[in-house]
Amino acid sequence: MNSRTEKPLAVVRTRAALQQHVRTWKAEGETVGFVPTMGALHAGHLSLVEKAKENADRTLTSIFVNPAQFAPGEDFETYPRREDDDLALLKAAGCDLVYLPAVAEMYPDGSVTDVRVNGMSDLLDGIYRPHFFYGVATVVARLFLHAQPDVAVFGEKDYQQLQVIRRMVRDLGFPVRIIGGETRRDADGLAQSSRNLYLSADERRAAGAMFAALHRASVRLSQGALPSDVRSEAQAHLLRSGFASVDYVALVDQDTLAALPDDAPVPPGTARLLGAAWLGRTRLIDNLSVTR
Ligand code: PAF
Q1: Residue 55 has pLDDT above 70, yes or no
Q2: 89 near 183, Cβ under 8 Å?
Q3: Arithmetic mean of pLDDT, 19-36
Q4: How far, in Å, is the centroid of ligand 1 from the Cα of 91?
Q5: Pocket of ligand 1 contains residue 156 by CB under 6 Å
Q6: Which end of the chain, N or C, is less surrounded by CB atoms within 10 Å?
């Protein structure tokens, strides 16, 4: 067993206390790996913690349900909050430190400064949740300034978020290496997500169709099928399987997220296929790479 898993997990709630820990580590020449989360942790988050441990000497996780990335009417109030369970999971995972800031710590009174990664934030999910990536970029920039990590790990499950953060880090010159963590899936392929807790038993049974539809589509695309055909098939698959509506099934450049042509086979290299669809009142997203 890693001797670090036997240590108590330190919990801090202020930027000053966080920086005390980080300063001490850095003075000892240790690097810091950071996993920002909104809590309600599952195996997917813990695999990101594992990745942070592999890439840095110390591991820090933040838990902060960020009001700036929820629009009025979205699930900010009801988003699952499970602090005790989360802390137990992080302790067992061998995380060194957890940052649990209050809203006023992240957004001091009168705070009016946002970070906007233009263009990329307005595509795909940004069409349906126009506030979302501005809220994410703003809070992640603030978290980076609070935590000053060397490495930060984000799940590929939120692929557009990962690319937006990579772009922000590049544009603003944050001295942080961004690492993508592979999506963790249930046995039927459903990508693990805190919002899966919202699904009823019937919805949970239907939810595996998101992975099945995207997987079939990615195989067809890699064999040279036309994106327009494959997208229609995937949408029909989702609707047939009980999804109420499909926001998008989209084939994009894996770095820029620019749409690839609908009427020509995927060019050689690696593209990304993303989907978002509603199952009852829950919106599921997922994505897979497409290689030719
Ligand atoms: O992916 C999430 O949990 C959140 O969007 C993040 C990156 C922690 C920012 O609030």
Answers
A1: yes
A2: no
A3: 98
A4: 20
A5: no
A6: N
Q: Which amino acid is at 17?
A: A
Instruction: Say whether pLDDT at 2 is over 60.
Output: no
Q: What is the pLDDT of residues 126-184, one digit of tens each?
A: 999 999 999 999 999 999 999 999 999 999 999 999 999 999 999 999 999 999 999 99
CATH 3.40.50.2300 fits 10-181, yes or no: no
Question: Which ligand 1 atom lies nearest to the CA of residue 37?
Answer: 8
Ligand 1 atom nearest residue 65's Cα: 10
Task: DSSP letter for 241, please.
Answer: T
Residue nearest to atom 1 of ligand 1 (CA): 37
Compute and round to an integer the Cα radius of gyration of the chain: 19
Contact between 179 and 151 (Cβ < 8 Å): yes
- For residues 180-213, one letter each, b for 16 or more C-beta atoms within 10 angstroms of the residue's C-beta and e for the rest, the string is bbebbbeeebbbbbbebebbeeebbebbbbbbbb
Instruction: Assign a CATH topology to domain 194-291.
Output: Pantoate--beta-alanine Ligase; Chain: A,domain 2 (3.30.1300)
How many other C-beta atoms can be found within 10 angstroms of the C-beta atom of residue 240? Answer: 10
Residues of the chain with CATH 3.40.50.620: 10-181
Query: CATH 3.30.1300.10 residue ranges in the chain?
Result: 194-291
Span from the CA of 94 to the centroid of ligand 1 (angstroms): 21
Q: Is 66 in the pocket of ligand 1 (CB under 6 A)?
A: yes
Please give the model's pTM, rounded to 2 decimal places.
0.96
Atom 6 (ligand 1) nearest CA: 37
Report whether residue 80 contacts ligand 1, using a CB cutoff of 6 Å: no
